[in-house]
Structure formats: structure tokens, C-alpha cells
Amino acid sequence: MKEITRIIAFYETLKRKADVACALAMVVYVEGSSYRRTGARMLVSEDGFWEGGISGGCLEGDALKKARMAILKSKPELVRYDTTKGDDNQIGVGLGCNGVIDVLFIPVDFENENNPIEILKKSFENNNKPLVVITNSLKEPELLGKLFYFESKQSIDFLKNHLDVGLFSEEILALEKSKNYNIDNELRLFVEILPKPITVYLFGNQYDIYPLIELLKMLYWEVRIVSEPNKIQNRENLTIIAPSDFSENLLNKNSAALLMSHSLEIDKKNLRKLTTSTVKYIGMLGPKTRSERILNELAAEGTKIDSNKIFAPTGLDLGASTPEEIALSIVAELKAVFSGRNGGFLRERELPINERNQEIFKFN
Q1: Which positions fall inside the XdhC Rossmann domain (predicted)?
Q2: Residue 362 within a domain
Q3: Please, what sign has the CA dihedral across residues 244, 245, 248, 251?
Q4: I want to staple 133 with a disulfide (CB 3.0 to 4.6 A). Which of 147, 244, 246, 277 is the partner?
Q5: Are 33 and 119 part of one and the same domain?
Q6: DSSP string, 244-268
Q7: Are residues 222 and 160 in the same domain?
Q8: What angle do the packed helices 323-339 and 209-218 form, to 10 degrees?
Q9: What's the 3-state SS for 205-243?
Q10: Are 111 and 240 within one domain?
Q11: Rounded-to-integer distance, Cα 165 and Cα 153, Å
């Protein structure tokens, strides 16, 4: 989310200048290993500046040239980088990535309210609606690079000559992750499911919440502090919710809650409120015996608790001791939980680090 936010900010700067053209480079297909996955993007200005990235740095140099060419031609272009071949003329050879990466370069027209960055902004403003980009079109080449966000079947009505709009709309609505589609071997689409923003609710006002706030802001996650406002330092640019105003209805499956009050009774009271919410993660600061006491007392009074949501003590086992180290262990565990990972050592992982898109799904 941070990268997209910075790309949009860079775009706004270029738009105000109005005399520096730019192009969007977007990874739309990956097969095998690569540093970045589908949806990675960078915005390149014709004067050689850029924001974002499509690799670990190995492809950016060539991407600058390709982006400038797209600007010059005022025409999108799909470029394949194949680092699996031993061709010395192939960009990326010798890096050991062993992957195939398709990058779509789309020139950005500031005057067009439906240019790719404006569409990205609109998707954000509409609860991260799925993005659809046409990555190949044999019969209608002018469709290459068309990018739009999906809101209803009317969004893809112009594709009715290629597919069943109603069925494909249902397909998009059911997606949980990005996919590539091949339509009758003449049209390829990349449907990107943008991640929903993660909101972390911090229940507490002691000094150890501040390193957490800094780390979460660095990730561009949303932070909500549940506390009496007058107990929070440097309240500017912070969202603070008074305990009397807090409701479990504020939480959803993209939310996490951290109980950090340092008061057993207050943490127990807050946990009681959270048990009926749809929150994905509830972390409890402090030793295991303390958490077990709170959970046992709530169980004794008849409060039902989903133990799968409870992480007590909160955080990964990093040997953390200072507030900053504890914040790191908590944020690392949050990331692991929301990514569906266990948070172990990567050297012990038998599967690839990232899921590999080795299939283009057919739809006809």
C-alpha cells in the first residue's frame, strides 16, 4: 500500500508540472522465481525519475528505456523478461532468478481522467475495487493496456463480444487473489485484487505503544488508538477513540487488536468487548500466565472466545526485550498472520517464498 500511495503522490507532482510526461510499468504475469510479483509497478517520468519498482533493481534500468519508448510512441507495450535463458543479450541473465516476467508499459495522459493512475486512485476511493488490465488483444490491438476498476458487470460490458459478461463478473467477485485469464486465445486479462488496508487498534496509552505506531505507519497500515485522548502524547496525525466511543462493530476481518493497557482488569474488559467482533487477530501483551488468567476468568463467567484469534503472548519469538524490539516482534507476527504464514525461518521453508503464477486460466 505504501508503494502505491507514493506512486500516486509522484503522479500528482508530475501532473502539476504538466510538462514532464510519464508512463506506468506494471508486472502482469510471473512464471517461476522473481523478486517482485504480479501487481508490482513503477511510475517513470521521461526525465529519468521514478517511484516504485518491478524487480530488485535488475530490470529497472531497461524498464526506464522501455517506459520512455512507450511515452515517445504514445502506445502501450508488453515486454517479456526471461531470466531462465542463457542468452547474453537477455536482460537479467546471470542473476539466478530463473523466472519469466511480463511487464506492461502504459503511457499516462494527464488530460485523460481514465488514465491508469487515475483509475488506481478511483479504486482506492471505492474500497480497493479489483483492477482489470488487458495485457494482449489480437483482434483489437487498441485494447492493449486498457485498465479499469471493476464495480459491476457494466464495467466490462464492452467485452461482451469476447465473453459472457455476467459469468465473468461473478468470477471477479469471487476472486481472493490476482489471476491472469486467456479468453478464446485472442484476449488476455490480468485481474488484480488489491490488498485491503489492515487496521490495527491499540488498546493502551503507555510508552510502549509509540514504537508500534512508528512501525505501523512505516508500513502504511492504519492505526487506531483506543484511549482517553489526554493520555496520548503528540496527538497530531493520530486517530484516537475514547473507550466510551469504541464499538466492536468498528472491527472486521482486516483488523487486528492489541491489548496493551498493563492493567489486567482493563485488558479483560476490552477482550470481553472483542469476543463478538470479526477481528482477525487479538494480541495480548504480557506473560503467558497473565493471559491464561484473563482467558480462564472470562471462560468461567460464560464468555465464549475463539482461541484461534488469540495470540498471547503477542509477537514472534525473537528474543525481544526493549519496546522497539517487542514492537518489531508484534508487527512481524501481524504480517505473518495476515499473509497466512507461520513466521518461521525462510531457510527452513520447503515451498517457494512466493506463490508462483504458472497458469493462465482459460475463460470462454
Answers
A1: 200-334
A2: no
A3: negative
A4: 147
A5: yes
A6: GG--GGG--TTEEEEE--S-HHHHH
A7: no
A8: 50
A9: CCCCHHHHHHHHHHCCCEEEEECCHHHCCCCCCCEEECH
A10: no
A11: 6
Asked whether the predicted pLDDT for residue 333 surpasses 90, the reply is: yes
Indicate if 36 and 174 belong to the same structural domain: yes
What is the rounded average pLDDT of the residues 286-305?
Answer: 94
Whether 358 contacts 32, CB under 8 Å: yes
Q: For residues 258 and 333, give the distance between their C-alpha atoms in angstroms, rounded to a whole number.
A: 12
Domains contained in the chain, number:
2
354 is a domain residue:
no
CA-to-CA distance for 284 and 322, rounded, in angstroms? 17
Residues 37-62 as b or e (16 or more Cβ within 10 Å = b) = ebbbbbbbbbeeebbbbbbeebbbee
| Amino acid (1-letter code) at residue 355 | E
206 lies in some domain: yes
Give start and end residues of each alpha helix (H) in the chain: 2-17, 60-73, 116-125, 165-174, 209-218, 264-274, 288-300, 323-339
Query: Which range of residues forms the domain containing residue 46?
Result: 2-192
Locate cell 501483551: which residue? 285
- Residue 287: inside a domain: yes
pLDDT digits (tens, 9 = 90+) for 184-208: 888 899 999 988 889 999 999 999 9
Q: Which three cell numbers stand for residue 23?
A: 508512463
Q: Looking at the DSSP assignment, which residues form a beta bridge with residue 41?
A: 26
Q: What is the pLDDT of residues 297-314, one digit of tens each?
A: 999 999 998 989 999 999
